[in-house]
Please model this.
Amino acid sequence: MLFNSFPFILFFVVVSVSYYLLSHRYRWFLLLAASCYFYMAFVPKYILILFFTIVVNYCAGILLEKYTKSYERTFVLISTVCIDIAILGFFKYFNFFVENVNALAQFLNFNYSLTFLSIILPLGLSFHTFQALSYVIEVYRGNQRAERHFGIYSLYVMYYPQLVAGPIERPQNLLHQFHSIKKFDPHTVTYGLKRMAWGFFKKTVVADHLAIIVGVVYANPQAFDGPTLIFATVLFAFQLYCDFSGYSDIAVGSSRVLGITLMENFERPYFSKSIAEFWRRWHISLSSWLRDYVYYPLVRSTNHLTRAKLYCATIITFLISGLWHGASWGYVCMGALFGIYIVSAEITKQWKAKMLD
Model:
């Protein structure tokens, strides 16, 4: 069930109306049931994978709050992170791993090959894996109390507006909202509907129509001259932005209709004055997640901090960002390039400042 489809519109209307007709006591169940239905509209059996990760992380949160010894809490955290990453790695990266192993074996003239698996990436696996990890890490750090209500925690992981393409929420922002009583507010509902309409416009009117032009050029680039290819590339940049930010607007808007606020995911990224600023404005929920749970831990992992270590942490973070976006060397190279751009800008910052004086 895609956001830009009639079934979703019908689904959204039924869920939203039912939500305000129900007592607060039962709303979490309605949203959880709706989220399960939304998820199962793609590959129904994959909800078992999501249920398994929910149980693992829910139990981990309780154990982290129960245990007081450092080594016990660290063991629970590492074990949970490994399980979450293993599930994501299997479904998203196993065939990529097999492809590279087979290519290496062929290059070395080894008569050996691994078999590809016919697996489909579960809906939103990258998003709800990172969201589950943020919960466990925040409980471990003492910034979030473990959620004892299993249904509320399940809803935190698979809340339907953000299930397809984020934003990747933090427990401090989302969990308490499921507990608080939401009264019907015409102004909030109107804002949410307007935000959804803007998202639908960006997705269906702009992005989908630009995709037709870009698809024709990119399908046969040899048939077009340089200016046309450049023009198509510029259009692709707007197509990508309108597609992704359109989905985010629909997610934020549909959630606001229910009185629940999700974080903003885009802040006019193409008005950025540097690559670093661009990544603070583009896919904000992912960039901030990687900053808080990858970059900062890498930086703090050493007592003696040097510029070289900061630069290495930056590049590693962006390599992970690239791999998160897709299982291919193209995405890895994309992450590496952005990391190199940011490091290069930092290295030359003082030199450029002197040039401008």
